[in-house]
Amino acid sequence: MPQDAELIAGMIRGESGAFADLYQKYRARLHQYALSLIRSRMEAEDVVHDVFVGLAKQASEGRMPRELSAYLYVSVRNRCVDRMRRKPELPLDDVDLELMVAPTGDEERIAASRVLNRALLALPVEQAEVVVLRTWHDLEFSTIARMQGTSVNTALSRYQYGLAKLRKELAADGR
Amino acid sequence: MDDERIEQLLRGYELPEVSRNLDHRVLREGGAILERARTRAAIEDFGRSLLQLFGFGYLTWLVDLATTTDAEYRVDFV
User: Fold this and answer.
1) Across the interface, which of B12, B14, B76 has its CB nearest the CB of A62?
2) How far is B68 from chain A (nearest CA, A)?
């Protein structure tokens, strides 16, 4: 997979292949991130759609972000926060989505994934956000703190609280 | 179970599947936007070449002088 800079250059030249590669590179992570914030499959898809279409529009006007990865994450976050302000949070019982998927055939891990998924969704949004970004997306705490508009220590605390709650849920389930 | 064990456990799971519908929507719309931009640029280039060919190159120079800002000559990072 080419580097972001090459893909950006390709998009500015109007190459739809570069856009497709860039989308492939980030789609799954941004989709999961949006799901962890907005907790609605349809809205998460709309957010990811709007972010990438917005990026294509910028490229068509000769404008592109300097730090693509950071730009994409912040765009997803801003759009999710905006939507969350406009609609009430769904009760957990009404939320039917996965933030992670277990490998097929492994009964033990599939069962554990249900517990963990449920526990992740039960976390306060800002804790789930740190856990998702740190665990699957390998973002530094300093980056996460900047995105959340908080201090590194707060981001770290949210992460630790989040993991502690997941641990508790697993223990309650006998794991 | 310590934090490290939980982290390992979480990392062992894959990200949720992205729907084909989303892939289709994004690639179709984003691709079309870039395609339109490329076509627009190609038409502009062609028009300029024609004007140059027929000795009206000064017209493109005048238009550029009147309409183009510095930002249009470079990629504007936001």
Assistant:
1) B76
2) 13
Task: Give the pairing type, strands A63-64 and B76-77.
Answer: parallel
Complex-level ipTM: 0.84
| Predicted local distance difference test score (pLDDT) of residue A91 | 63
Q: How many CB pairs under 8 A join A and B?
A: 135
Supply the pTM of this predicted model: 0.83
The CATH fold assigned to A1-88 is Rna Polymerase Sigma Factor; Chain: A (1.10.1740)
Residue A20, token pair as written in the block: 């497709």
Structure tokens at A104: 């097929």
Domain ranges for chain A, please list them.
Answer: 1-88, 100-175
Q: Which of A11, A29, A113 sits opposite B34 (nearest CB)?
A: A11
Complete DSSP assignment for A44-98: HHHHHHHHHHHHHHHHHTTEE-SSHHHHHHHHHHHHHHHHHHHSPPPPGGG----
CATH topology for the A100-175 domain: Arc Repressor Mutant, subunit A (1.10.10)
Residue A123 DSSP code: S
Q: Which of A8, A43, A53 is the best mutation test for B, with the most CBs of B within 10 A? A: A53
pLDDT tens track for A55-99? 999 998 888 888 899 999 999 999 999 998 887 766 655 566 788
